[in-house]
């Protein structure tokens, strides 16, 4: 097992850069942190490029079935763990994975959540986790949405990225494919023509569009959708958090 003891090590410096979107895009790699996410990679049979951890952390990884004799397993100290961590209290274990986005994907079946330019990583991760819990087939992020591989998004997903399909794709193409397969597309938005969520019956397949936290679903995407819907508000709150609203709608159609 290889050992690194300096934060100035070349590999450590390279991995530190993976906390930035630009470098993730350049390398095609991303970093996950923490035991739960690491265990989810094992359950999903995802191969890691590197596994780094302190002595205590790697001992736990060995108990989970990882061979510490592997060349890509690296022992680090607590100083390096703090250096690589994107959290205040690091669990001192990190894995480097390849970004896996399919070049072609068919949207001719299933239940999908379509995220139109969402900006908050916590909201995106929570929506993905909720879609997973509700048994949806997957989530599509518009290219302008927050980066799927952002550390905050990763933490909010809690491993759901390994359970369902998560695609980064232009929503115009996705909606076109869904409607070509007679799958209805509902856009969530406050609009005079929108219908109340309780008025909708469950359907076997659908695309559910969730809009940007500040601006909602774009007019272009809304006009491509079959129907607009909204969640009635009975109190004095002006609106719902995007992830909360998405969760209510996802489970309505689950």
TrEMBL record:
Pfam family, one: MRM3-like_sub_bind
Domain of life according to the entry: Bacteria
One GO MF term: RNA methyltransferase activity
GO annotation, cellular component aspect: cytoplasm
CDD domains assigned: SpoU-like_rRNA-MTase
Residues annotated as domain RNA 2-O ribose methyltransferase substrate binding: 31-103
Record has Hydrolase as a keyword: no
Keywords annotated in UniProt: Methyltransferase, Transferase
Methyltransferase is among the record's keywords: yes
GO BP of this protein: methylation; RNA processing
Gene3D superfamilies in UniProt: 3.30.1330.30, 3.40.1280.10
Family membership noted in the UniProt record: Belongs to the class IV-like SAM-binding methyltransferase superfamily. RNA methyltransferase TrmH family.
Protein name per UniProt: RNA methyltransferase, TrmH family
Species for this entry: Lactobacillus amylolyticus DSM 11664
